[in-house]
Structures are given as C-alpha cells and as structure tokens.
Design brief:
Elements lengths: L1 H13 L2 E3 L2 E4 L1 H11 L11 H9 L17 E2 L7 H15 L5 H16 L1 E2 L5 E3 L3 H15 L10 H14 L3 E2 L3 E2 L1 H7 L7 H15 L5 H12 L6 H8 L17 H9 L18
Antiparallel strand pairs: 1-2, 2-5, 3-4, 6-7
Keywords: Disulfide bond, Secreted, Signal
GO molecular function: odorant binding
Family: Belongs to the PBP/GOBP family.
C-alpha cells in the first residue's frame, strides 16, 4: 500500500493543480505537456520546446518576441545579487538585436536562457498560477450568469447584480475570496504586471482592510476592492468589462454604434456614480 501511495503522490505533484477554474502548473509539468505536443515535430522549425513552454505557461507571444515580465514567477534571484534584473534586460536586448522575430523558436530558447543565466535559479517543480485567456474569461462569465440565475444580460441599472457577477468572476478565477480578500500576486500575473512591488501590495492591502472594516455586503466589497484598492497596474475591472462585451447594458448604451465598443462603454460608465473612480486613461482613446 505504501509504494502505491508514493507513486500516486509523485504523480499528483507532476500534474497541474486546479482550484475553482484556475490552473496552476510547474515548469516540469508544462515541459511534459510540450513533449507530448511536439512528439511529431513542428514543421521543420527546429527545437521549439522552450517556445511551447512559454505558450502553455503564457509568458511568451511570438508577436512580442520576448518573455513577459510574469516569467519571473518561475525564478528565484539570489538576494545578494543586485544586478540580476539589469543583466537580464541587457541579455534580452542583445537577443532581440541578433535573432529575427520570425525565428520564434530560437529567440524563445535564447531569451529564456537569459533568465536562467542572469536572473536567478529556476524553480522547476513549484506550481504557479497560469493566466486566463479571453475565451476562458468569457466562459467563466457565462458560468457565473448560470450560477447566479441571471437569465437575461445584466443591465447597468441593476448595480447589485453587476457587482455580484463581478464577484463570482473573481472567485471562479481564484483571484479573490470573501475570507482572504484579493490575491494580488495572481491578479498581477493575470494582468501581466510585476508583482514584486512591496509598496504597492502594502497600500492595496491597507485599503482592503479599511473596506473590510466597513461591513459592506459581499458583492459591494469585492467590487470596491478591485475598483478602489487594486486598481493600478493590476486592472481587473476593465478586463471584466471587455469580456462582458456581449452583455446588453440596456438603455445606457442604446444607439451607440460607432467607435471601439470598449471605449464607448467605459466613456459612458465614467458618467455614472458607480464608476466615477475609473482612471481617466481608461476612457481616453489613444491618438
């Protein structure tokens, strides 16, 4: 019985972990996936294992051509090394200058080598949060509509229903809980930001504690946490508004058919008391 338990435990550690709809994977488990995907090669593009790792763990896009900042969640810098970040950035710059963007597999290999050689020790077995895609966001919203019994699209006049849908969205993506509040680290990874800023995290949590002391209802609290406290580099409310683009905001949005849909919605929401705290840059189109 004991050997079987050991085998089962080892197998579980090698697999991804799920909580609600969130997925957590290690470099080890991602690489095992990629061995399966790439078993028959990649149409003559050479060794694309590392590129596959980046795509599955969502720190790589061919259109960007360098790892997202969130790759750092898989690495542990030496506390006494003060120059690891600058060396890594210099290495990435050299790679971008030498290897063309079209050679995505080689550029991914060399870029990740910059992190392994310059940034810190890779943690191959620690599981990390994997960000959701836009399609997955939409699926979560639809699940939450069903869970909450919202048979029609939530209108902007139904403020409580909107906030409860948003709370469900955060909980289902394992970014928030009523008991623990926001998981700022995961929120930042979801939004592509660097979550090592202790000052930002401290200010955000002080804001959360102040709101929790006000004894707000659960839906209001979840909304206020995201809108008032975790609203800088980590901006989940705009993501939510974007993926709920098919929701009919009823009379508030009838007759508006020109321009980018998200900017229209944000511009109109900015005029309503509920959304007056949205940052101005969210409602200003880029020139």
């Amino acid at each position: 019985m004991q050997p079987l338990l050991t085998i089962l435990t080892g197998s579980l550690l090698a697999l991804s972990v799920e909580a609600h709809n969130a997925i957590f994977k290690s470099i080890h488990s991602v690489d095992r996936e990629c061995v399966l995907y790439l078993r028959d090669g990649t149409c003559g593009k050479g060794d694309c294992t590392v590129r596959c790792r980046g795509l599955v763990a969502r720190f790589w896009k061919d259109t960007v051509g360098r790892p997202a900042a969130t790759i750092n969640r898989f690495y542990r810098p030496d506390p006494e090394d003060c120059g690891y970040y600058e060396r890594t950035e210099q290495c990435l710059g050299e790679i971008s200058a030498v290897i063309p963007a079209e050679d995505a597999c080689r550029r991914a290999n060399c870029s990740v080598s910059c992190y392994e050689d310059q940034y810190g020790r890779v943690d191959r077995y620690g599981v990390r949060f994997i960000p959701f895609t836009e399609l997955q966001h939409k699926r979560v919203v639809r699940e939450c509509e069903a869970i909450l019994g919202l048979t029609t699209s939530v209108g902007i006049e139904h403020c409580r229903e909107f906030k409860c849908l948003f709370r469900c969205f955060l909980i289902r993506e394992d970014l928030y809980s009523d008991a623990g509040g926001p998981d700022i680290e995961r929120m930042s990874v979801q939004c592509g930001g660097r979550y090592g800023d202790e000052a930002f995290r401290r200010r955000a949590m002080e804001c959360v504690w102040n709101l929790q002391a006000q004894q707000l209802d659960r839906c209001e609290l979840a909304y206020r946490v995201a809108n008032d406290c975790v609203n800088g580099e980590v901006a989940l409310l705009p993501i939510f508004l974007n993926v709920t683009g098919n929701l009919q905001f009823n009379s508030a949005f009838r007759g508006f058919t020109r321009g980018p849909p998200l900017l229209q919605r944000l511009s109109l929401l900015q005029r309503l008391p509920l959304f007056q705290n949205l940052p101005l840059w969210l409602t200003t189109p880029a020139v």
